[in-house]
């Protein structure tokens, strides 16, 4: 049995993770952490709740974190130092913090995973795009989100463009004589990104590849955040075998 | 029997039109015009060829024009003055020329059609978009063309955006607080247009509409110019009933 | 001010309709009907609640019905006899009941609308499909729904196929020598329908049209039933101008 | 310099391969084989033409075969016995012939490739589908072809379904209570395949994956057979490093 602590148990992702853990036969929820405990929490008997890291004296194999950017570094450090393998879904760790945590994990001899995105369709899209760009260097990204999304392009679209740029051979790109033009979208290292913002839409991304006489399109649609639980499940299955603290769910797919 | 003259018989569109006319039971090719006659032309017996308007003494019901911008105005004038109903696929007529030709048609009591685009899928898309924009004021246009297309956005995409802008009620548009941003594409009267340029692609356009909890998408794909013949066929069927010189195939669909 | 009664106020659609009516400046909710009244209802002051048609002595212009199949006929009859224009979203009326109600509406000199589907994207899709089938007689329907949907094809897909069959000219269909084959889907009057059932999907339909060298695709996605409110809004705007009891939102789009 | 013989030089694929080889800096066409030589062939100076295997005394590194099913086995045998690495695009080899050729290649110590499909987009689609099915066991295949295609489903769609069936864990599939139904398409080991046949379409395949709250779609479009040349190019680049006679371009992508 894998013993698990969930940090951020009162949030939406924490609650969904709790249901997931309950449904897994080889897992047991042993602890739950939230700074402000909520009386309505309906946790399995025997789960210890705590609202301060200092109060945590529970032995566990895995620490799953869906808390807030301001807490995630201290939480992850605490988990590693107490030999709990971290599965981190909270955003906010910067590059130097990640390096420090990776060193700490190496010293303590445990693996773990920091995943900015637990949506399997998005992570698989990026994995496939990396491969496809080797053979189809000409590619463009279209991301579509609800009208309330304030930033453009989406972080995922930028990351996708970076993956294409790193994977393709610049010599193979078809030259275009078209002048720069607002209709051609944002340019990330030569990859065009187009952002659509419309009511009704949720979160969608497609990558279009074109070559002589053919086209390849990879598309993912996220309808709601329940989709993240499939990714968390994969992480729980794999984390005991990891020997390093890795970044990105794609590393274990 | 509708008697037909094809102007521009030696071009690709002229040749396809000749095949179309031959296949229609109620049509007869009586004349063919080209400044430089091509000996390899294999026209039905009895078709008179001529290489100068002055040499044309043929009576016909319909004049179909796939020539060049520099010739189209004189050709169309000639057709109308000789009581032939024009079906004009040649580009290059400006607004004042079109007005003059419309007056001339009215004086001569005949109808006709000037069509910048004979592709039925593109014309129907624009017709449907006009209707949809009344109920879905939030819309974006994505057009996708081969990597050699030099201009962006495409003329069809701009026309599509104009149709949306004219048809929708500005008060119904969902407000977006997003700053202007290259990823958001070109802006035509508040409609965003995104242009994709990739090898393998031919000529494609899609319009995305979004509303609360739903989306509507209309897409057209043009794989080759043979598609224009369906539109020419519709024009031949309808032109005898027209009482004006109209612009746009959508007027008779 | 249009005075409105909502029948089925305690259901999900009834509640959403109540919010819609509250947001419309020229509408006033004057009555609400539900067989089992719910104390938690938070209706505008002055709205009369009743749980039996006999208790309804309210004067209103419009009766909006989202109740149950067993009640809808009696409700609609009641509304018409009391000079309230019916907007009926409840399913379950059969052809003879509809005829009877249409006669009753004619006698009472009022119009109204029975709409099996208030989703604007689905209704517009059907309207456009009717038009497109005249020019693109070759068409296939693909509908995609969540894995729990028990019937296939969907009712909307069957209706779409019927519209295509009625609208296209059978002589124009491209002959196919392919033998009947399970991969080719269900056949409704010569139109192929394909039904996809997958988790994650909600309710989506696309119609593919193909012609020489080109293709036209119309697609609609319903993500949640909030989308129906746009259609109800259109019905409220138009119902006072109707002189008959019509069936289908497409009649007033 | 890689010395290359092209068998089937007079066919469409042979001619395209000749152009490809001419454009590659590290390749030299040394021989061309066709049973009926065509005087119009415009081959590089120094290319030896032959119309019978007996007349072939040319030394080459690679034998590229786009001939006919009745000739491909003897051709490939000949190539291997003469230490030429085969790249076989001709269909028609059965399983026992492939085994025999693989043994022969092992004895002669050379590698090669037999590829039923050189279209990179189709081959990559199958590669990605194999990976995706591990995480998205619920999948359906939709293939779309021109109206003249006589068989359904396409061979590629059947192969795609087999890949999904082999890759996914049957225990993870979402149970559907829906009865078998023509609209649900053909069933290959539990995977539904839908075949669309419409004029205008060329050759297209999409695989739809669905999971809780999300969807992943992979689509490929083949517009013309020029697309195969990208796959042949990859095969030429890799074949000198192969130590076995492999089947399927996906093995070297």
TrEMBL record, chains A, B, C, D:
Residues 3-118 form the Dihydrodipicolinate reductase N-terminal domain. Its EC number is 1.17.1.8. Keywords: Amino-acid biosynthesis, Cytoplasm, Diaminopimelate biosynthesis, Lysine biosynthesis, NAD, NADP, Oxidoreductase. GO terms for molecular function: 4-hydroxy-tetrahydrodipicolinate reductase; NAD binding; NADP binding; oxidoreductase activity, acting on CH or CH2 groups, NAD or NADP as acceptor. GO terms for cellular component: cytosol. (S)-2,3,4,5-tetrahydrodipicolinate binds at residues 146, 155-156. It comes from the Bacteria. One of its GO terms (biological process) is lysine biosynthetic process via diaminopimelate. Gene3D superfamilies: Dihydrodipicolinate Reductase, domain 2 (3.30.360.10), NAD(P)-binding Rossmann-like Domain (3.40.50.720). It is found in: Cytoplasm. Pathway: Amino-acid biosynthesis; L-lysine biosynthesis via DAP pathway; (S)-tetrahydrodipicolinate from L-aspartate: step 4/4. InterPro entries: DapB_C (IPR022663), DapB_N (IPR000846), DapB_N_CS (IPR022664), DHDPR_bac (IPR023940), NAD(P)-bd_dom_sf (IPR036291). The active site is at 145 (proton donor/acceptor), 149 (proton donor). Residues 122-253 form the Dihydrodipicolinate reductase C-terminal domain. NAD(+) binds at residues 8-13, 39, 89-91, 115-118. Signal peptide: none annotated. It catalyses: (S)-2,3,4,5-tetrahydrodipicolinate + NADP(+) + H2O = (2S,4S)-4-hydroxy-2,3,4,5-tetrahydrodipicolinate + NADPH + H(+); (S)-2,3,4,5-tetrahydrodipicolinate + NAD(+) + H2O = (2S,4S)-4-hydroxy-2,3,4,5-tetrahydrodipicolinate + NADH + H(+). Catalyzes the conversion of 4-hydroxy-tetrahydrodipicolinate (HTPA) to tetrahydrodipicolinate. Homotetramer. Belongs to the DapB family. This is 4-hydroxy-tetrahydrodipicolinate reductase.
């Amino acid at each position: 049995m894998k013993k698990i602590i969930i940090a951020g148990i009162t949030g939406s992702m924490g609650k969904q993770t709790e249901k997931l853990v309950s449904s897994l036969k080889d897992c047991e929820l042993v602890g739950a952490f939230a700074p402000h405990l909520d009386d309505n929490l309906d946790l399995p008997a025997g789960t210890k709740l705590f609202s301060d890291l200092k109060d945590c004296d529970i032995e566990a194999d895995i620490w799953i974190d869906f808390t807030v950017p301001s807490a995630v570094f201290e939480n992850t450090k605490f988990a590693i130092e107490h030999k709990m393998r971290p599965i981190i879904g909270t955003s906010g760790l910067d590059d130097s913090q990640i390096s420090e945590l990776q060193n700490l994990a190496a010293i303590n001899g445990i693996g773990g995973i920091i995943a900015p995105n637990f949506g399997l369709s998005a992570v698989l899209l990026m994995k496939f795009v990396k491969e496809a760009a080797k053979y189809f260097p000409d590619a463009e990204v279209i991301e579509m989100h609800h009208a309330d999304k304030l930033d453009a392009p989406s972080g995922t679209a930028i990351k996708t463009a970076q993956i294409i740029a790193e994977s393709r051979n610049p010599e193979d790109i078809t030259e275009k004589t078209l002048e720069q033009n607002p209709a051609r979208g944002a340019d990330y290292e030569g990859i065009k990104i187009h952002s659509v913002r419309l009511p009704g839409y949720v979160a969608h991304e497609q990558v279009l590849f074109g070559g002589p006489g053919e086209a390849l399109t990879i598309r993912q649609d996220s309808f709601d955040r329940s989709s993240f639980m499939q990714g968390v499940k994969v992480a729980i299955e794999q984390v005991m075998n990891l020997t390093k603290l890795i970044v990105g769910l794609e590393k274990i797919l």
